[in-house]
Design a protein that fits this description.
Blueprint: E1 4-8, E2 15-19, H1 28-31, H2 38-44, H3 49-53, E3 58-62, H4 98-123, E4 129-137, E5 157-160, H5 169-179, E6 183-184, E7 187-188, E8 191-193, H6 201-209, E9 214-222, H7 235-255
Parallel strand pairs: 2-3, 2-4, 4-9, 5-8
Antiparallel strand pairs: 1-3, 5-9, 6-7
């Protein structure tokens, strides 16, 4: 039931970008009992983050919705069953059948085994591995025409360090400094660490696989490049943000971690959440 696009085009590059909340697909068993509309579901997903992950040669992009299985939560909390699981939304209009729930939990385990295989395969070729766990977040929850949530609590980009060992904190700080105060759409980008989001279960799990050699950072983009109520992109703003992010990440990899990657994105292809 979990559909994802796993693309490893350069095993010589110790970098993997993921977009685990990118997807929008629900299996028929859950579609039939959905208690919310597709538009409501889409608003709480992270549309277009697959396109950012797709800038890099090695990426994993989910096509399945987090409303099927949320891979950023522990297994027992990964399937939304009650409103308190998902922003007060009535995700199901009837309880999930026991056999379907069991199948979803098995899929969760299978996906993590597959991810561990890919991660350990890359670690087998390199002394270290960087994983960028890409997300986006809402900041206009009061309504499409309401004032946005305060900037003081809602930076444009958040770097979450989750359970990252302190020995890797300088690497996270270096990336923050490269992104912070960059000019985007004639304004200064605000990038901070561990404000609002410090990273979910997925980056904690990744970092736990080999704390000495893995640097997994959760990157949250505020949905300033799109209308979070309709998911419509501002194409110009998004293109500029993608270019800026890739360029600064490539500088960070080259200059701070001695990982060689082109300073401009190649034509790897673009992943979206509508599959």
């Amino acid at each position: 039931m979990i559909h994802s696009s796993i693309r490893i085009l350069d095993e010589g590059l110790p970098l993997l970008a993921t977009a685990i909340h990118n997807g929008h697909r629900l299996p028929p068993e859950l579609e039939r009992i959905s208690g919310i509309t597709a538009a409501e579901r889409l608003r709480e997903e992270d549309p277009h983050t697959g396109k950012i992950a797709g800038l890099f040669p090695n990426s994993v992009v989910l096509e399945s919705s987090r409303f099927a299985v949320d891979l950023n939560r522990p297994q027992q909390k990964a399937v939304y069953q009650n409103p308190e699981d998902c922003w007060g939304l009535q995700a199901r209009n009837v309880p999930i059948p026991a056999d379907v729930l069991q199948h979803l939990h098995r899929d969760y385990e299978s996906w993590h085994r597959l991810m561990e295989y890919q991660i350990r395969k890359l670690l087998g070729e390199h002394p270290k591995l960087v994983l960028l766990d890409l997300h986006s977040y809402n900041h206009r929850r009061k309504g499409p025409n309401a004032e946005p949530d305060p900037q003081s609590e809602n930076p444009d980009i958040i770097i979450g360090r989750s359970n990252l060992p302190q020995k890797h904190y300088p690497a996270a700080q270096e990336l923050r400094e490269l992104l912070n105060t960059q000019t985007w759409q004639s304004q200064t980008l605000d990038c901070r660490m561990d404000v609002k989001f410090s990273g979910g279960h997925f980056p904690r799990w990744v970092n736990s696989l080999d704390p000495e050699r893995i640097i997994c950072l959760a990157i949250e983009f505020k949905k300033i490049f799109m209308d979070e109520w309709t998911s419509k992109l501002n194409d110009e703003a998004f293109l500029e943000l993608k270019s800026l992010f890739y360029h600064q990440v490539s500088r960070w990899l080259n200059e701070f971690l001695n990982i060689q990657i082109p300073l401009e994105p190649q034509l790897w292809g673009q992943n979206d959440n509508f599959g």
